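A student in our group prepared the protein record below, which I am reviewing. I have pasted the whole thing underneath without changing anything:
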Amino acid sequence: MKKLFLLIGTLFFACSPNTEKFDILILNGSIYDAENQSFYEADLGIKGDKIAKIGDLKDAAARQTIDATGHVVSPGFIDVHSHIEAIMRMPDAENFVRQGVTTVLAGPDGRGPSPMQPFLDSLSTYKLGLNTAWLVGHNTIRRNIMSTENRAPTEEELEDMKSAVAEAMQSGAYGLSTGLKYVPGSFSNIEEVIALSKVAAQQGGIYTSHLREEGLGLIEGVQEAIQIGKEAGIPIVLTHHKAIGKPMWGASTKTLAMVDSARNLGIDVMMDQYPYTASSTGLSVLIPTWAMAGGQEEFKKRIDDPATRKKIKEEIMFNIEYDRGGADLAVVQFANVSWKPDLNGKTLKDWAIEKGLEPTFSNGAELVIEGQLNGGASCIFHAIGEEDVKRIMRHPLAMVASDGGLAKPGQGHPHPRSYGTFPRVLGHYVRDEKVISLELALAKMTSLPADRLGLSDRGYIKVGMLADITIFDPETVDEGGTFEDPHHYPAGIPYVIVNGTITVDQGEMTENRAGRVLRKK
């Protein structure tokens, strides 16, 4: 019967010369107007990969018709902080697409690929589930040229790094990302970062910064990012903006005031944010970066020296008590432990108890050292205040971004943001908590990131724009996963269209892959 229905529909489509024809019709939906942050009732027709017509199209014909009654028809969501390093292994990017994400900005935290040209050329041969835009990574470049040495670059090395940024920008990168909290970016000074940012700025790029500190040094970290933007003349994104550790809860009042003051002075600064009270990064974030200089072998040598080990341990204890450790070993939750998979989902406190240890800061520090000597681990850190999350979310220039990675059900124990960032904002913070309006939330997911990246053909629903469309039910949209049980796709997002191709159909991923590698012109 279904085949007969499709056949009749196809014959009707082909044999109605006086009827306007589309590839896809979306009827009866509430269309989000990103330009005015409002909604209007209309139908939408798609031909090929573009939006062809908006209006009353109930008498038109189409190869496929979607009844969007009771649903919002939105531009596809744009995730400006995504970790899709495994894209060639998981090109469908299902956990992003099923959130309504049609475009991601990849390569954040200083990790973007370099050289860029061969990477993008290779990625273009894959059938992708969504569109990808890329940043070149400062850490990648520095590691390629200077390894993990804790020193300033020579003049020749700095020129080599500038050339690498130029290569990336000429190849289509959208800007430069830094991870100044991580090795080797933590070893750079502000002059180095400004010099590289100037190269990106000359070709229309942006600067996204994992700040040097997001805990006790947060204010100084924001000041540094703003200074880099000012001196380099480059638009800034304070990426995954937050205040880590209880001593800094409430500090977003100061950082947001700093953003507003900088903008009043003509410095172009914005933010992105994920809607959770936990971060996710490597276990090594608890270890002082100087101890990691030179790589894992040098770290082992330092641990073997009693005096150096004592100093490292003391600094880890400090970070557990006052920074990302949240003053409680239960705050540190393991996400992916290759050398001890049974720890996935458990906490540092659980591990201590398993080993017959008191969950003290001292014992926690010893376990962090042991974990790093075994090869490290991905962890979730429950050390962010809910009021800071809400305060940052209310700021009109804070975009929604996942900071999530590619995920498959059953693999590891990832942060739930990898599955639920966008539906969590729409369901929990908009519908249930009423922290922001639906109109503002959608702006943070569509037009704001499109404008930041200079994507002139995405982020809005207008005739002639590329047909990246997300259709969701504002009454039922929900994140699905939790910190305890993260592997769940969201609910309430029945259709996702990428470049005019239905990629999620009635809530299920199709075999269609229409994503593209985007290159900044």
Remarks:
- The longest helix spans residues 155-171.
- The chain has 16 helices and 21 strands.
